[in-house]
């Protein structure tokens, strides 16, 4: 496999950061939906609720959980480092 360029590494890191943000958004929206179902009414201010959830330590923890590995991918200079970092992100599963 040819070495990744710095631009490719930055693009991969940006993709992974956005992916983690989308996971956090999904969980936050699910919490709003679950609350709405429990109260049998959708909140009119769900967007405000989402913004409040974005400020919680739990949301930040999800977004930042893999930041050390993402930073290693972004700044690494060896393909083996990239593969090892991806395996950690994938919980030890093979990188295809």
Describe this structure in words.
There is one protein chain. The chain is mainly α. α1 packs across α2 (46-54) and α1 (6-39) runs antiparallel to α4. The protein has helices spanning 6-39, 46-54, 57-64, 67-75, 79-89. It starts with 5 loop residues before the first helix and ends in a 7-residue tail after the last helix. The chain has one domain.
Radius of gyration: 17 Å
Number of domains: 1
Helix and strand string, N-terminal first?
Answer: HHHHH
| Class of secondary structure makeup | mainly alpha
Number of strands: 0
Measured by DSSP, the beta-strand proportion falls in under 5%
**Which whole number gives the mean pLDDT?**
85
How far apart, in Å, are the first and last alpha carbons? 12 Å
Q: What's the main sheet like?
A: none
Task: Give the SSE map.
Elements lengths: L5 H34 L6 H9 L2 H8 L2 H9 L3 H11 L7
Helix pairs in contact: 1-2, 1-3, 1-4, 4-5
Please outline what is shown here.
The protein has five helices and no strands. Helix content is 74%, strand content 0%. The longest helix is centred in the first third of the chain and has 34 residues, at 6-39.
Provide the descriptors you would attach to this structure in a database record.
5 helices, mainly alpha, 96 residues
